[in-house]
Amino acid sequence: MRIAAFPLILALSLSDCAAVRQQLGLALVTEQTEVDLGRKLAAQVEKQEKPLADARVQAYVRQVVAPIAQQSFRDRPGVEYQVTVIDDPKQINAFAIPGGYVYVYSGLLKAASNEAELAGVMAHEIGHVVGRHSANQLAAQYGIELLTQLALGEEGGQLREMAASLAGAGAMARFSRDDEREADEYGFKYLAACGYDPRALLTFFTKLEQLEKSRPSDLERLFASHPPTPERIALIEKMIAKAGASGGKLERDKFVKETASLRR
User: Which of 34, 49, 125, 182 is catalytic?
Assistant: First the structure.
């Protein structure tokens, strides 16, 4: 059976391969375990980090994410997304944890130029949730038995350790390059489906590339396990060319208005 199945697996398209990875992850960590674990990790993250007190900015970011999440249900239905802005103007980052909890730092909102750039980053993070990347990586790092115990309520210090590894500079370093590429592909698809200009991903990655050069000590951990930014830019350019994407909304004025409090 293994021999017969091998050529079939090799012949699968990218979307089929993503579905296979998702199903393999589900076989290791059940949906309920992921949801329970995510809820407990989210509580720890929000003890260790400081949610932004600005209700208007919080509501705006959730409004941006809502249609992206709706698009993602085609690939993974039933996720109840919880989106939170963290108050840290120096951190240019966003991350997702099991169960659909997605976080973005106020520093990233300050670094972005328009709504399309923010939407692109958030679509990428939702891509991680769709691919079950956090759950799979935690299972590989800590073991399925421990994750199940934590989800059932046997907490201890492990939850604090996990939450710390998920947030801040460690948030991206835990993903494999394949995970990051898959999240980029999901993100591109959702961004374009929502009517945004997917070239906003290129402009934001270009900013990150410049930051890598000007602030290498701040960002070297952040990008340690990422595909290099030029590689990601090339991938996005290839997807834009293949999709024939030409334009779309940027919503710069709206973005500047809704995030003005962060720049005062």
Answer: 125
